[in-house]
Design goal:
Strand order of the largest sheet of chain A: 2-3-1-4-5
CATH topology of the largest domain in chain A: Glutaredoxin
Structural class of chain B: alpha/beta
Largest sheet of chain A: 5 strands, mixed
Shape of chain A: elongated
Distance between the termini of chain A: 46 Å
Number of helices of chain A: 8
Largest sheet of chain B: 5 strands, mixed
CATH architecture of the largest domain in chain A: 3-Layer(aba) Sandwich
CATH superfamily of the largest domain in chain B: NADH-ubiquinone oxidoreductase 51kDa subunit
Number of helices of chain B: 16
CATH architecture of the largest domain in chain B: 3-Layer(aba) Sandwich
Number of strands of chain B: 10
Oligomer: heterodimer
Chain lengths: ~170, ~400
Protein backbone atom coordinates (compact mmCIF):
# COMPACT_ATOMS: atom_id res chain seq x y z
CA UNK A 1 0.00 0.00 0.00
CA UNK A 2 1.28 3.47 -0.78
CA UNK A 3 1.41 5.61 2.30
CA UNK A 4 1.04 9.28 2.86
CA UNK A 5 4.25 9.44 4.85
CA UNK A 6 5.80 11.58 2.17
CA UNK A 7 2.98 14.10 2.62
CA UNK A 8 3.64 14.48 6.32
CA UNK A 9 6.35 17.11 6.83
CA UNK A 10 9.65 15.60 7.91
CA UNK A 11 9.76 17.55 11.17
CA UNK A 12 6.28 16.30 12.14
CA UNK A 13 7.31 12.75 11.35
CA UNK A 14 10.47 13.15 13.41
CA UNK A 15 8.63 14.64 16.32
CA UNK A 16 6.13 11.76 16.22
CA UNK A 17 8.59 8.97 15.45
CA UNK A 18 7.68 7.08 18.63
CA UNK A 19 3.98 7.35 17.89
CA UNK A 20 4.39 6.20 14.30
CA UNK A 21 6.52 3.25 15.49
CA UNK A 22 3.78 2.30 17.96
CA UNK A 23 1.14 2.42 15.24
CA UNK A 24 3.26 0.37 12.85
CA UNK A 25 3.84 -2.16 15.60
CA UNK A 26 0.07 -2.41 16.26
CA UNK A 27 -0.62 -2.70 12.53
CA UNK A 28 1.89 -5.56 12.32
CA UNK A 29 -0.02 -7.33 15.12
CA UNK A 30 -3.59 -6.66 13.98
CA UNK A 31 -3.29 -6.21 10.23
CA UNK A 32 -4.68 -3.64 7.83
CA UNK A 33 -8.27 -4.88 7.47
CA UNK A 34 -10.87 -2.43 8.67
CA UNK A 35 -11.82 -4.86 11.46
CA UNK A 36 -8.34 -4.21 12.88
CA UNK A 37 -9.26 -0.58 13.54
CA UNK A 38 -10.72 -0.97 17.02
CA UNK A 39 -7.94 -3.29 18.30
CA UNK A 40 -5.33 -0.85 16.93
CA UNK A 41 -7.00 2.16 18.56
CA UNK A 42 -7.44 0.31 21.87
CA UNK A 43 -3.80 -0.71 21.78
CA UNK A 44 -2.76 2.84 21.03
CA UNK A 45 -4.86 4.26 23.83
CA UNK A 46 -3.31 1.81 26.30
CA UNK A 47 0.21 2.84 25.22
CA UNK A 48 -0.30 6.59 24.97
CA UNK A 49 -2.23 9.22 26.90
CA UNK A 50 -3.95 10.64 23.85
CA UNK A 51 -5.12 9.71 20.37
CA UNK A 52 -3.90 12.81 18.59
CA UNK A 53 -4.80 14.20 15.18
CA UNK A 54 -1.53 12.95 13.80
CA UNK A 55 -2.25 9.48 15.22
CA UNK A 56 -5.64 9.51 13.49
CA UNK A 57 -3.98 10.54 10.23
CA UNK A 58 -1.35 7.81 10.41
CA UNK A 59 -3.84 5.05 11.39
CA UNK A 60 -6.14 6.13 8.55
CA UNK A 61 -3.21 6.04 6.18
CA UNK A 62 -2.10 2.54 7.21
CA UNK A 63 -5.63 1.10 6.92
CA UNK A 64 -6.59 2.93 3.72
CA UNK A 65 -9.34 4.91 5.46
CA UNK A 66 -10.07 8.60 5.67
CA UNK A 67 -9.11 10.43 8.87
CA UNK A 68 -12.75 11.35 9.41
CA UNK A 69 -13.68 7.65 9.38
CA UNK A 70 -11.11 6.96 12.06
CA UNK A 71 -12.04 10.02 14.11
CA UNK A 72 -15.70 8.96 13.95
CA UNK A 73 -14.76 5.66 15.55
CA UNK A 74 -12.39 7.23 18.10
CA UNK A 75 -15.07 9.61 19.35
CA UNK A 76 -17.83 6.99 19.42
CA UNK A 77 -16.45 4.78 22.20
CA UNK A 78 -16.19 5.83 25.84
CA UNK A 79 -12.73 4.34 26.38
CA UNK A 80 -11.20 6.01 23.32
CA UNK A 81 -11.77 9.70 22.54
CA UNK A 82 -9.39 12.45 21.50
CA UNK A 83 -8.90 14.08 24.90
CA UNK A 84 -5.65 13.40 26.77
CA UNK A 85 -5.97 11.30 29.92
CA UNK A 86 -3.80 11.05 33.02
CA UNK A 87 -1.49 8.21 34.10
CA UNK A 88 -4.30 6.88 36.28
CA UNK A 89 -7.86 6.98 34.98
CA UNK A 90 -10.69 6.59 37.47
CA UNK A 91 -14.15 5.83 36.12
CA UNK A 92 -16.93 5.94 38.69
CA UNK A 93 -20.09 4.07 37.75
CA UNK A 94 -23.00 6.49 37.72
CA UNK A 95 -25.79 4.06 36.83
CA UNK A 96 -28.74 3.21 38.98
CA UNK A 97 -27.57 0.58 41.50
CA UNK A 98 -24.37 2.48 42.20
CA UNK A 99 -26.29 5.76 42.28
CA UNK A 100 -28.73 4.34 44.85
CA UNK A 101 -25.95 3.02 47.07
CA UNK A 102 -23.51 5.85 47.62
CA UNK A 103 -21.98 7.00 44.36
CA UNK A 104 -22.58 10.68 45.18
CA UNK A 105 -20.38 10.72 48.28
CA UNK A 106 -17.59 8.94 46.39
CA UNK A 107 -17.68 11.46 43.55
CA UNK A 108 -17.76 14.46 45.90
CA UNK A 109 -14.67 13.19 47.69
CA UNK A 110 -12.99 12.38 44.39
CA UNK A 111 -13.53 15.89 43.06
CA UNK A 112 -12.43 17.29 46.37
CA UNK A 113 -9.12 15.43 46.61
CA UNK A 114 -8.21 15.88 42.95
CA UNK A 115 -9.40 19.49 42.73
CA UNK A 116 -10.93 18.85 39.30
CA UNK A 117 -14.42 18.03 38.09
CA UNK A 118 -15.62 14.77 36.57
CA UNK A 119 -14.35 14.53 33.00
CA UNK A 120 -11.13 16.42 33.79
CA UNK A 121 -7.47 15.64 34.41
CA UNK A 122 -5.36 17.04 37.24
CA UNK A 123 -2.93 19.75 36.08
CA UNK A 124 0.04 17.48 36.87
CA UNK A 125 -1.34 14.97 34.35
CA UNK A 126 -1.44 12.23 36.97
CA UNK A 127 -5.15 11.52 37.40
CA UNK A 128 -8.23 11.68 35.17
CA UNK A 129 -11.63 11.31 36.81
CA UNK A 130 -14.69 10.48 34.78
CA UNK A 131 -18.04 8.77 34.76
CA UNK A 132 -18.77 5.31 33.44
CA UNK A 133 -22.17 3.92 32.58
CA UNK A 134 -23.09 0.60 34.23
CA UNK A 135 -19.86 -1.40 34.60
CA UNK A 136 -21.65 -4.62 35.63
CA UNK A 137 -20.55 -4.48 39.27
CA UNK A 138 -24.02 -3.76 40.69
CA UNK A 139 -23.60 -6.52 43.29
CA UNK A 140 -20.66 -4.56 44.69
CA UNK A 141 -22.15 -1.07 44.42
CA UNK A 142 -20.88 1.55 44.41
CA UNK A 143 -18.11 0.49 42.08
CA UNK A 144 -15.43 2.10 39.95
CA UNK A 145 -12.79 1.20 37.39
CA UNK A 146 -9.23 2.29 38.12
CA UNK A 147 -7.15 1.87 34.98
CA UNK A 148 -9.89 -0.52 33.85
CA UNK A 149 -9.59 -2.77 36.92
CA UNK A 150 -12.78 -3.06 38.97
CA UNK A 151 -12.80 -1.61 42.48
CA UNK A 152 -15.70 -3.00 44.50
CA UNK A 153 -17.76 -1.28 47.20
CA UNK A 154 -15.67 1.83 46.92
CA UNK A 155 -15.93 4.30 49.81
CA UNK A 156 -14.98 7.99 49.91
CA UNK A 157 -11.91 7.07 52.00
CA UNK A 158 -10.85 4.35 49.58
CA UNK A 159 -11.15 6.64 46.57
CA UNK A 160 -9.02 9.25 48.35
CA UNK A 161 -6.36 6.59 49.02
CA UNK A 162 -6.40 5.57 45.36
CA UNK A 163 -5.77 9.19 44.34
CA UNK A 164 -2.94 9.50 46.87
CA UNK A 165 -1.33 6.33 45.53
CA UNK A 166 -1.73 7.56 41.95
CA UNK A 167 0.03 10.82 42.78
CA UNK A 168 2.87 9.26 44.78
CA UNK B 1 -18.34 -13.50 43.55
CA UNK B 2 -21.74 -13.02 45.02
CA UNK B 3 -23.39 -16.23 43.90
CA UNK B 4 -26.41 -16.63 46.14
CA UNK B 5 -28.04 -19.87 45.03
CA UNK B 6 -26.50 -23.14 43.86
CA UNK B 7 -25.91 -22.80 40.13
CA UNK B 8 -26.76 -25.73 37.88
CA UNK B 9 -24.05 -24.53 35.49
CA UNK B 10 -21.43 -25.14 38.22
CA UNK B 11 -22.38 -28.83 38.20
CA UNK B 12 -21.99 -29.28 34.44
CA UNK B 13 -18.72 -30.99 33.61
CA UNK B 14 -16.77 -29.21 30.88
CA UNK B 15 -16.60 -31.38 27.78
CA UNK B 16 -19.70 -33.47 28.50
CA UNK B 17 -22.03 -31.42 26.31
CA UNK B 18 -19.63 -31.17 23.39
CA UNK B 19 -18.94 -34.92 23.40
CA UNK B 20 -22.66 -35.62 23.34
CA UNK B 21 -23.39 -33.05 20.60
CA UNK B 22 -20.66 -34.35 18.31
CA UNK B 23 -22.27 -37.77 18.27
CA UNK B 24 -25.23 -36.30 16.39
CA UNK B 25 -25.50 -34.56 13.05
CA UNK B 26 -25.89 -30.77 12.86
CA UNK B 27 -29.63 -30.90 12.07
CA UNK B 28 -30.16 -33.07 15.13
CA UNK B 29 -28.17 -30.63 17.29
CA UNK B 30 -30.43 -27.80 16.14
CA UNK B 31 -33.52 -29.93 16.73
CA UNK B 32 -32.35 -30.68 20.28
CA UNK B 33 -32.07 -26.97 21.08
CA UNK B 34 -35.50 -26.37 19.55
CA UNK B 35 -36.88 -29.26 21.61
CA UNK B 36 -35.43 -27.75 24.81
CA UNK B 37 -37.55 -24.66 24.16
CA UNK B 38 -34.68 -22.37 25.10
CA UNK B 39 -35.17 -18.71 24.28
CA UNK B 40 -32.32 -16.21 24.18
CA UNK B 41 -30.97 -15.40 27.64
CA UNK B 42 -29.95 -11.88 26.65
CA UNK B 43 -33.47 -10.56 27.02
CA UNK B 44 -35.09 -10.43 23.60
CA UNK B 45 -36.30 -14.01 24.00
CA UNK B 46 -35.89 -15.21 20.43
CA UNK B 47 -35.99 -19.04 20.23
CA UNK B 48 -32.37 -20.19 20.01
CA UNK B 49 -33.13 -23.30 17.94
CA UNK B 50 -34.97 -21.24 15.33
CA UNK B 51 -32.13 -18.72 15.13
CA UNK B 52 -29.68 -21.54 14.43
CA UNK B 53 -32.00 -23.08 11.82
CA UNK B 54 -32.18 -19.75 10.00
CA UNK B 55 -28.40 -19.25 10.16
CA UNK B 56 -27.72 -22.81 8.99
CA UNK B 57 -30.12 -22.58 6.05
CA UNK B 58 -29.34 -19.04 4.82
CA UNK B 59 -27.28 -19.11 1.64
CA UNK B 60 -23.59 -18.52 2.35
CA UNK B 61 -21.90 -17.72 -0.99
CA UNK B 62 -18.37 -18.46 0.24
CA UNK B 63 -19.50 -21.11 2.69
CA UNK B 64 -18.57 -18.78 5.54
CA UNK B 65 -20.77 -18.50 8.62
CA UNK B 66 -20.06 -16.98 12.02
CA UNK B 67 -20.95 -17.63 15.63
CA UNK B 68 -20.80 -14.54 17.83
CA UNK B 69 -21.06 -14.57 21.59
CA UNK B 70 -22.53 -11.32 22.84
CA UNK B 71 -20.56 -10.57 26.00
CA UNK B 72 -21.35 -6.86 25.79
CA UNK B 73 -23.31 -7.08 29.02
CA UNK B 74 -24.20 -3.41 29.32
CA UNK B 75 -27.80 -3.39 30.46
CA UNK B 76 -27.89 -1.50 33.77
CA UNK B 77 -28.27 -3.90 36.65
CA UNK B 78 -27.00 -6.94 34.74
CA UNK B 79 -23.86 -8.76 35.83
CA UNK B 80 -24.67 -12.49 35.55
CA UNK B 81 -22.63 -12.84 32.35
CA UNK B 82 -19.60 -11.45 34.22
CA UNK B 83 -20.03 -14.26 36.73
CA UNK B 84 -20.51 -16.91 34.03
CA UNK B 85 -17.43 -15.67 32.14
CA UNK B 86 -15.39 -15.69 35.37
CA UNK B 87 -16.58 -18.98 36.81
CA UNK B 88 -17.43 -21.22 33.86
CA UNK B 89 -15.86 -19.87 30.65
CA UNK B 90 -15.39 -23.42 29.34
CA UNK B 91 -19.17 -23.88 29.11
CA UNK B 92 -19.48 -20.66 27.09
CA UNK B 93 -16.76 -21.61 24.60
CA UNK B 94 -18.17 -25.11 24.42
CA UNK B 95 -21.65 -23.76 23.63
CA UNK B 96 -20.13 -21.64 20.86
CA UNK B 97 -18.38 -24.71 19.46
CA UNK B 98 -21.64 -26.67 19.48
CA UNK B 99 -23.32 -23.73 17.70
CA UNK B 100 -20.53 -23.71 15.11
CA UNK B 101 -21.13 -27.42 14.45
CA UNK B 102 -24.90 -26.85 14.33
CA UNK B 103 -24.87 -24.04 11.76
CA UNK B 104 -21.74 -24.97 9.81
CA UNK B 105 -19.50 -22.16 11.01
CA UNK B 106 -15.77 -22.49 11.55
CA UNK B 107 -15.23 -19.15 13.22
CA UNK B 108 -16.51 -17.84 16.52
CA UNK B 109 -15.93 -14.44 18.08
CA UNK B 110 -16.61 -13.49 21.66
CA UNK B 111 -17.34 -9.76 21.84
CA UNK B 112 -16.19 -8.76 25.32
CA UNK B 113 -17.33 -5.38 26.59
CA UNK B 114 -14.49 -2.95 27.26
CA UNK B 115 -15.59 -2.64 30.88
CA UNK B 116 -14.66 -6.32 31.40
CA UNK B 117 -11.10 -6.04 30.06
CA UNK B 118 -9.85 -7.48 33.37
CA UNK B 119 -11.44 -10.83 32.38
CA UNK B 120 -9.49 -10.97 29.12
CA UNK B 121 -6.33 -12.76 30.30
CA UNK B 122 -8.21 -15.58 32.01
CA UNK B 123 -10.48 -16.02 28.99
CA UNK B 124 -7.47 -16.18 26.64
CA UNK B 125 -5.87 -18.77 28.94
CA UNK B 126 -9.04 -20.83 28.83
CA UNK B 127 -9.00 -20.69 25.01
CA UNK B 128 -5.30 -21.70 24.96
CA UNK B 129 -6.05 -24.70 27.11
CA UNK B 130 -8.99 -25.73 24.92
CA UNK B 131 -6.76 -25.52 21.84
CA UNK B 132 -4.08 -27.60 23.56
CA UNK B 133 -6.70 -30.17 24.60
CA UNK B 134 -8.01 -30.51 21.06
CA UNK B 135 -11.37 -28.88 21.90
CA UNK B 136 -10.77 -26.04 19.45
CA UNK B 137 -8.88 -26.06 16.18
CA UNK B 138 -8.91 -27.95 12.90
CA UNK B 139 -9.74 -31.44 14.16
CA UNK B 140 -11.85 -31.23 17.31
CA UNK B 141 -12.00 -34.49 19.24
CA UNK B 142 -10.52 -36.21 16.17
CA UNK B 143 -13.81 -35.79 14.31
CA UNK B 144 -12.46 -33.50 11.61
CA UNK B 145 -14.65 -30.67 12.91
CA UNK B 146 -13.02 -27.26 12.59
CA UNK B 147 -13.82 -24.35 14.89
CA UNK B 148 -11.77 -21.41 16.09
CA UNK B 149 -12.63 -18.77 18.67
CA UNK B 150 -11.12 -15.33 19.08
CA UNK B 151 -11.98 -12.54 21.49
CA UNK B 152 -12.83 -9.06 20.28
CA UNK B 153 -12.64 -6.30 22.86
CA UNK B 154 -15.26 -3.56 22.83
CA UNK B 155 -14.35 -0.02 23.83
CA UNK B 156 -17.34 1.14 25.83
CA UNK B 157 -20.69 1.57 24.06
CA UNK B 158 -24.00 0.26 25.42
CA UNK B 159 -25.58 0.17 21.96
CA UNK B 160 -23.07 -2.49 20.87
CA UNK B 161 -25.14 -4.99 22.84
CA UNK B 162 -27.61 -4.63 19.97
CA UNK B 163 -26.52 -7.36 17.58
CA UNK B 164 -26.21 -5.34 14.38
CA UNK B 165 -24.34 -2.54 16.19
CA UNK B 166 -22.05 -5.20 17.67
CA UNK B 167 -21.32 -6.50 14.17
CA UNK B 168 -20.60 -2.95 12.93
CA UNK B 169 -18.18 -2.58 15.84
CA UNK B 170 -16.29 -5.77 14.94
CA UNK B 171 -16.09 -4.54 11.36
CA UNK B 172 -14.25 -1.44 12.62
CA UNK B 173 -17.07 1.06 12.52
CA UNK B 174 -19.08 3.19 14.90
CA UNK B 175 -21.54 0.96 16.71
CA UNK B 176 -24.58 2.16 14.82
CA UNK B 177 -27.36 -0.37 14.36
CA UNK B 178 -28.32 -1.54 10.87
CA UNK B 179 -31.69 -1.64 9.22
CA UNK B 180 -33.32 -5.05 9.47
CA UNK B 181 -34.01 -7.04 7.36
CA UNK B 182 -31.65 -8.45 6.42
CA UNK B 183 -31.20 -10.04 9.83
CA UNK B 184 -27.75 -11.20 10.95
CA UNK B 185 -28.78 -14.83 10.41
CA UNK B 186 -29.02 -13.94 6.69
CA UNK B 187 -26.36 -11.24 6.33
CA UNK B 188 -24.34 -10.63 9.47
CA UNK B 189 -20.62 -10.23 9.98
CA UNK B 190 -18.89 -9.41 6.66
CA UNK B 191 -22.22 -10.21 4.95
CA UNK B 192 -22.16 -13.87 6.05
CA UNK B 193 -24.92 -15.71 7.95
CA UNK B 194 -24.24 -15.08 11.64
CA UNK B 195 -25.83 -16.24 14.84
CA UNK B 196 -25.41 -13.84 17.75
CA UNK B 197 -26.25 -15.35 21.13
CA UNK B 198 -25.83 -14.27 24.72
CA UNK B 199 -23.14 -15.65 27.07
CA UNK B 200 -25.70 -17.42 29.23
CA UNK B 201 -27.42 -18.94 26.18
CA UNK B 202 -24.17 -20.63 25.16
CA UNK B 203 -23.53 -21.87 28.70
CA UNK B 204 -27.01 -23.44 28.85
CA UNK B 205 -26.39 -24.97 25.42
CA UNK B 206 -23.57 -27.02 26.95
CA UNK B 207 -25.85 -27.95 29.84
CA UNK B 208 -28.66 -29.03 27.49
CA UNK B 209 -26.37 -31.52 25.76
CA UNK B 210 -24.89 -32.70 29.05
CA UNK B 211 -28.28 -33.20 30.71
CA UNK B 212 -30.75 -33.55 27.84
CA UNK B 213 -33.36 -31.32 26.23
CA UNK B 214 -36.09 -32.95 28.31
CA UNK B 215 -34.34 -32.03 31.54
CA UNK B 216 -34.23 -28.38 30.40
CA UNK B 217 -37.80 -28.20 29.18
CA UNK B 218 -39.10 -29.84 32.37
CA UNK B 219 -38.02 -26.71 34.26
CA UNK B 220 -39.93 -23.42 34.02
CA UNK B 221 -43.26 -22.84 32.26
CA UNK B 222 -44.59 -24.11 28.93
CA UNK B 223 -43.50 -21.00 27.06
CA UNK B 224 -40.48 -20.11 29.20
CA UNK B 225 -38.44 -23.24 29.71
CA UNK B 226 -35.34 -23.77 31.75
CA UNK B 227 -33.55 -22.10 34.61
CA UNK B 228 -32.54 -18.44 34.35
CA UNK B 229 -29.77 -16.48 35.97
CA UNK B 230 -30.85 -13.20 37.49
CA UNK B 231 -28.71 -10.27 38.63
CA UNK B 232 -30.36 -8.72 41.68
CA UNK B 233 -29.11 -5.39 42.99
CA UNK B 234 -30.21 -2.11 44.53
CA UNK B 235 -32.04 -1.93 47.85
CA UNK B 236 -31.70 -5.59 48.88
CA UNK B 237 -29.91 -7.33 51.71
CA UNK B 238 -28.26 -9.94 49.49
CA UNK B 239 -27.40 -8.60 46.04
CA UNK B 240 -25.92 -11.10 43.64
CA UNK B 241 -26.52 -13.75 41.01
CA UNK B 242 -29.45 -16.11 41.56
CA UNK B 243 -30.70 -19.06 39.58
CA UNK B 244 -34.46 -19.61 39.46
CA UNK B 245 -36.78 -21.57 37.20
CA UNK B 246 -38.51 -19.18 34.80
CA UNK B 247 -42.03 -18.46 36.00
CA UNK B 248 -40.92 -17.59 39.53
CA UNK B 249 -42.88 -14.72 41.04
CA UNK B 250 -41.22 -11.42 41.77
CA UNK B 251 -42.23 -11.86 45.41
CA UNK B 252 -40.43 -15.21 45.79
CA UNK B 253 -37.37 -13.69 44.18
CA UNK B 254 -37.43 -10.73 46.57
CA UNK B 255 -37.82 -13.08 49.55
CA UNK B 256 -34.65 -14.88 48.50
CA UNK B 257 -32.74 -11.64 48.09
CA UNK B 258 -34.08 -9.89 51.16
CA UNK B 259 -35.98 -7.11 49.48
CA UNK B 260 -39.66 -7.75 50.20
CA UNK B 261 -40.22 -4.22 51.50
CA UNK B 262 -39.52 -2.82 48.04
CA UNK B 263 -41.77 -0.17 46.58
CA UNK B 264 -41.01 -1.27 43.03
CA UNK B 265 -38.57 -3.35 41.03
CA UNK B 266 -37.11 -2.41 37.70
CA UNK B 267 -37.07 -5.70 35.79
CA UNK B 268 -34.99 -5.86 32.63
CA UNK B 269 -32.71 -2.94 33.47
CA UNK B 270 -32.87 0.54 32.02
CA UNK B 271 -34.71 -0.89 29.00
CA UNK B 272 -37.09 -2.84 31.23
CA UNK B 273 -40.28 -2.27 33.17
CA UNK B 274 -41.10 -0.68 36.51
CA UNK B 275 -43.24 -3.17 38.47
CA UNK B 276 -45.02 -1.79 41.57
CA UNK B 277 -45.35 -3.77 44.81
CA UNK B 278 -49.01 -4.57 44.14
CA UNK B 279 -47.90 -6.60 41.10
CA UNK B 280 -45.21 -8.65 42.84
CA UNK B 281 -47.19 -11.83 42.16
CA UNK B 282 -46.38 -11.45 38.49
CA UNK B 283 -43.94 -13.96 37.05
CA UNK B 284 -40.46 -13.59 35.58
CA UNK B 285 -41.02 -15.21 32.19
CA UNK B 286 -41.11 -14.34 28.51
CA UNK B 287 -44.92 -14.29 28.59
CA UNK B 288 -45.21 -12.01 31.64
CA UNK B 289 -42.35 -9.81 32.91
CA UNK B 290 -39.48 -10.52 30.56
CA UNK B 291 -35.85 -9.87 31.41
CA UNK B 292 -32.33 -10.59 30.28
CA UNK B 293 -31.54 -10.90 33.95
CA UNK B 294 -31.56 -7.47 35.58
CA UNK B 295 -33.63 -6.87 38.68
CA UNK B 296 -33.07 -3.52 40.37
CA UNK B 297 -34.87 -3.20 43.67
CA UNK B 298 -36.17 0.21 44.72
CA UNK B 299 -36.69 0.66 48.47
CA UNK B 300 -39.83 2.22 49.97
CA UNK B 301 -38.10 5.52 50.84
CA UNK B 302 -36.96 6.28 47.28
CA UNK B 303 -38.15 9.04 44.99
CA UNK B 304 -39.09 7.19 41.80
CA UNK B 305 -38.25 10.20 39.68
CA UNK B 306 -34.67 9.98 40.93
CA UNK B 307 -34.56 6.49 39.41
CA UNK B 308 -36.22 7.72 36.21
CA UNK B 309 -33.79 10.63 35.87
CA UNK B 310 -30.79 8.36 36.31
CA UNK B 311 -32.01 5.96 33.62
CA UNK B 312 -33.04 8.70 31.18
CA UNK B 313 -29.60 10.27 31.55
CA UNK B 314 -28.13 6.90 30.70
CA UNK B 315 -30.09 6.69 27.44
CA UNK B 316 -29.40 10.29 26.46
CA UNK B 317 -25.70 9.58 26.98
CA UNK B 318 -25.67 6.22 25.19
CA UNK B 319 -27.90 7.04 22.20
CA UNK B 320 -25.70 6.59 19.13
CA UNK B 321 -27.35 9.59 17.51
CA UNK B 322 -28.10 8.20 14.07
CA UNK B 323 -31.92 8.39 14.26
CA UNK B 324 -33.87 11.43 15.40
CA UNK B 325 -36.55 9.77 17.58
CA UNK B 326 -33.84 8.39 19.85
CA UNK B 327 -31.22 11.17 19.57
CA UNK B 328 -33.70 13.95 20.32
CA UNK B 329 -36.27 11.91 22.23
CA UNK B 330 -33.88 10.69 24.92
CA UNK B 331 -32.78 14.26 25.66
CA UNK B 332 -36.34 15.64 25.69
CA UNK B 333 -37.46 12.86 27.99
CA UNK B 334 -34.56 13.57 30.35
CA UNK B 335 -35.49 17.27 30.37
CA UNK B 336 -39.08 16.28 31.12
CA UNK B 337 -38.15 14.07 34.06
CA UNK B 338 -35.87 16.78 35.47
CA UNK B 339 -38.65 19.34 35.15
CA UNK B 340 -41.06 16.93 36.82
CA UNK B 341 -38.66 16.68 39.76
CA UNK B 342 -38.46 20.46 39.82
CA UNK B 343 -42.26 20.69 39.85
CA UNK B 344 -42.58 22.74 36.67
CA UNK B 345 -44.45 20.24 34.49
CA UNK B 346 -48.12 20.78 33.69
CA UNK B 347 -50.63 18.00 33.10
CA UNK B 348 -50.58 18.87 29.41
CA UNK B 349 -46.78 18.56 29.20
CA UNK B 350 -46.89 15.22 31.00
CA UNK B 351 -49.31 14.07 28.29
CA UNK B 352 -46.82 15.28 25.67
CA UNK B 353 -44.00 13.38 27.37
CA UNK B 354 -46.07 10.19 27.29
CA UNK B 355 -46.82 10.75 23.58
CA UNK B 356 -43.12 11.38 22.97
CA UNK B 357 -42.26 8.11 24.71
CA UNK B 358 -44.81 6.20 22.65
CA UNK B 359 -43.45 7.78 19.46
CA UNK B 360 -39.91 6.72 20.38
CA UNK B 361 -41.15 3.17 20.95
CA UNK B 362 -42.34 2.75 17.39
CA UNK B 363 -40.20 5.23 15.46
CA UNK B 364 -36.70 4.51 16.76
CA UNK B 365 -34.44 2.44 14.55
CA UNK B 366 -33.18 -0.05 17.11
CA UNK B 367 -33.93 -1.48 20.51
CA UNK B 368 -32.12 1.29 22.36
CA UNK B 369 -34.51 4.06 21.37
CA UNK B 370 -37.50 1.74 21.33
CA UNK B 371 -36.85 0.72 24.94
CA UNK B 372 -35.57 4.04 26.27
CA UNK B 373 -39.00 5.30 27.44
CA UNK B 374 -40.10 1.91 28.92
CA UNK B 375 -39.29 2.55 32.55
CA UNK B 376 -40.71 6.08 32.53
CA UNK B 377 -43.93 5.06 30.80
CA UNK B 378 -44.47 2.04 33.06
CA UNK B 379 -43.69 4.20 36.10
CA UNK B 380 -46.24 6.85 35.14
CA UNK B 381 -48.84 4.11 34.70
CA UNK B 382 -48.06 2.22 37.91
CA UNK B 383 -47.49 5.23 40.14
CA UNK B 384 -49.92 7.69 38.59
CA UNK B 385 -50.82 9.52 41.79
CA UNK B 386 -47.19 9.81 42.96
CA UNK B 387 -46.06 11.16 39.59
CA UNK B 388 -49.03 13.51 39.30
CA UNK B 389 -48.19 14.83 42.76
CA UNK B 390 -45.14 16.47 41.11
CA UNK B 391 -47.22 18.38 38.56
CA UNK B 392 -47.80 22.11 38.69
CA UNK B 393 -50.94 22.58 40.81
CA UNK B 394 -54.03 23.22 38.71
CA UNK B 395 -54.70 26.93 38.23
CA UNK B 396 -51.24 27.98 39.42
CA UNK B 397 -49.76 27.82 35.92
CA UNK B 398 -51.99 30.56 34.53
Amino acid sequence: MTTLDGAIPAEVREKNAGLIADIDDLVSIHGTERSALLPILEGLKSRRDQITDIAIQVVADRLGLTPVDVEGVVTFYHFLGTEPTGDTVIHVCRTISCALLGMDAVVKRLENVTGVSMGETTPDGKVTIDWANCIGMCDFAPAALVNREAVKEVTPDRIAEIVTEARA
Amino acid sequence: MTIRTPLTLSTIEAGAGLTEALQRDPADVRATITQSGMKGRGGAGFPTGLKWELAAKAPAPDGVRYVICNADEGEPGTFKDRVVLSEMPDLVFEGMTIAGFAIGATKGILYLRGEYIYLLDDLERCLEKRRADGLLGSDIHGTGLEFHISIFLGAGAYVCGEETALIESIEGRRGESRNRPPFPVEKGLHGAPTTVNNVETFAWTSAIFARGADWFSSIGTDRSTGPKLLSISGDVERPGVYEFPLGISIREMLEAAGGTRAKAVIVGGAAGTCVPAKDFDRAISYEDVSTGGAVIVVGPWRDLLEVAENLQWFFANESCGQCAPCRVGTVKLLDGVRDLRAGTVTAERLGDLITLGETMEFASKCGLGQAAPNVFLSMVKAFESEIKGHLVAEGSAQ
